[in-house]
Every structure is written in C-alpha cells, then in structure tokens.
Amino acid sequence: MGGKVVAIVGSYVRGGTADSAIDAILAGAREKGAQTHTIYLVDRHLDYCKNCRKCTQKPGVERGQCEQRDDLESILAEIEASDAIVLGSPVNYGGVTAVFRTFLERLIGYSYWPWGQPSPKARVKRASRRAVLVATSGMPGFLIPIFTGVSGTLHRAAQMLGAKTVGSMWIGLSAMEPLHPLSARTRERARRLGWKLA
Description:
Elements: E1 4-9, H1 17-31, E2 35-40, H2 72-80, E3 84-90, H3 98-105, E4 111-112, E5 121-122, E6 129-136, H4 144-147, H5 150-160, E7 163-171, H6 184-197
Parallel strand pairs: 1-2, 1-3, 3-6, 6-7
Antiparallel strand pairs: 4-5
C-alpha cells in the first residue's frame, strides 16, 4: 500500500464539482498511505502542439522529447514517477476542456510515428500504473459516456500515460449552482476509488 498518486485537473474552477471529486479520491488514497499531488493545468504554461512530429521520429520505448520549452516536461516527469493517476475534466461542448485538450495533444511523444508511416504506434505496451477518470456535466452522469466524447478521451489519455483504468466517475447535474456540492454518497464512492490507487 502507498505509492504516489498524481491528479491532472482540467477544470477552470477551484472548488468545483470535478475538483471536489478529485480531492475526495486523493483523500482516500492518502488513507491507504499514498502521497498525493494535484496539478491544475490552468496554473501551468502549456503551449499548443505544433504538429512538427519531431518528438515521434526516434524509435524505442522512451518518450520523445518536445522542443518547446514550457511546463510539459515537469508535468510528465511527475506522472512518470507516479504509481497511479487521476485524470479529470468537466464536459465543455461535448468534450474535455480546452486546457485538457492542449495537454492531451502534447502526449504525442508517447507514440512512434516516423514519416512515411500512416499512423502512430504507442511506445508504451504495458500499463505500469493505475488510473481513475473523472468527468462532470450539467446532464445526468450516466449520459456522459453516451453523448459526449469525454470518457473515450480520458481513457486514451490514460493509455498514452501507461495507465490502466481501474475506475471512473461520471458526475452529472453539476450545473444546478455555482459550486455544486458532492453528495455524501458520491464523496464516499470517490474515497473508495482512491483506495484502489494506493
């Protein structure tokens, strides 16, 4: 038990539904002895992917290095030093937030895609860490994986980061008030998911 759990939060609102759910997950992980750290993407400097594909050209299992000098390297280094991750984003226009999408596109370095090859191949073949996925929306939660692309996007991000998804939370009806509180039942479920990550 224990280990390190890193959360990547794609929300723009501190203390909002997604943030609160992730806090509860991390609290559960800490109960089982894990060290936790939260990375708020809005607080980090991430440039857009330029699609130069330089990071995808060198063969091998090691992640390709991006030539842009921003906070990507420090974020990925923290994730790579972790045993588990939490990936979370509210649903915006049927997808993840723009800041999470920017982060996602920069994960292309985990693929090998030399010129002349029609599509990329993942460098990571085996999941070495665990992941819990969180999405929030104004619609009922069970509709998130049906009517939005968020669940698939978060699953792909986890795979790119070498993580196997062990749980997910699709939390709905979060648009009823500015800082929609989590129900006791949802908070307890989040806490128990945290146990799986420790």
